[in-house]
Inverse folding.
């Protein structure tokens, strides 16, 4: 069965610091997708990135970057020069591309990021 | 394009009652999934519907049910409410251009259910 672990429950940084959110996953499927979502206090889950299991290229989008390493089953997320608006709960999620399973996301427990001014 | 919408946004019920939550997916999206979020259990998958058929179901009792209509709108129903059903219920939709499990799920704002 699939599993996602976010060991960091809560992280507190001061504005402009860099911060990395860790995500480790388990799956037996060879084809799978990894996601990061952001949940601000309003509650809605906001999609940030999707990565498939065959693409290990790191990705950068503005202040955000993602490091996918199949060898360690990790998909870490780094925010550079953090801002107060980055304060939220961040979730890592896994989806297996198994035709019998339909669409199902398995989420990690989330990491609450607090960025102080 | 409008995002996923959920109604109502807030709901207060008492134990033993039943409740129906509604979800309208992004236009053109055919898959709708439901998740329950609680402080203790985190985000858990309830079920998923595609083309009016339940394609996958999470580990929840039979009191939780759902359906999807021909326009892809979905409803979920919880009967005989218990205190532990208090949660944020999130609906997500995906386009499914490729195959199941491959597309991004986009989430609505959620319905916060409080059971007294």
């Amino acid at each position: 069965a699939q599993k996602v672990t976010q060991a960091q429950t809560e992280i507190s940084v001061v504005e402009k610091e860099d911060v990395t959110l860790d995500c480790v996953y388990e799956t037996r499927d060879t084809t799978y997708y990894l996601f990061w979502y952001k949940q601000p206090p309003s509650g809605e889950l906001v999609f940030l990135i999707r990565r498939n299991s065959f693409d290990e290229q790191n990705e950068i989008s503005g202040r955000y970057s993602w490091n996918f390493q199949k060898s360690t089953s990790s998909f870490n997320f780094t925010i550079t020069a953090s801002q107060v608006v980055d304060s939220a709960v961040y979730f890592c999620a896994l989806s297996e591309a198994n035709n019998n399973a339909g669409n199902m996301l398995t989420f990690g427990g989330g990491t609450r990021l607090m960025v102080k001014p | 394009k409008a995002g996923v919408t959920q109604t109502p946004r807030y709901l207060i019920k008492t134990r033993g009652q039943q409740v129906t939550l509604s979800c309208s997916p992004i236009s053109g999206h055919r898959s709708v999934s439901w998740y329950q979020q609680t402080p203790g259990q985190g985000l858990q998958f309830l079920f998923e519907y595609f083309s009016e058929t339940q394609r996958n179901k999470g580990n929840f009792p039979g009191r939780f049910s759902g359906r999807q209509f021909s326009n892809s709108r979905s409803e979920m129903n919880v009967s005989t409410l218990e205190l532990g059903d208090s949660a944020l219920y999130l609906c997500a939709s995906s386009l499914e251009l490729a195959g199941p499990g491959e597309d991004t799920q986009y989430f609505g704002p959620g319905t916060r259910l409080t059971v007294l």
About this structure: The first strand of chain B starts at residue 5 and ends at 7.
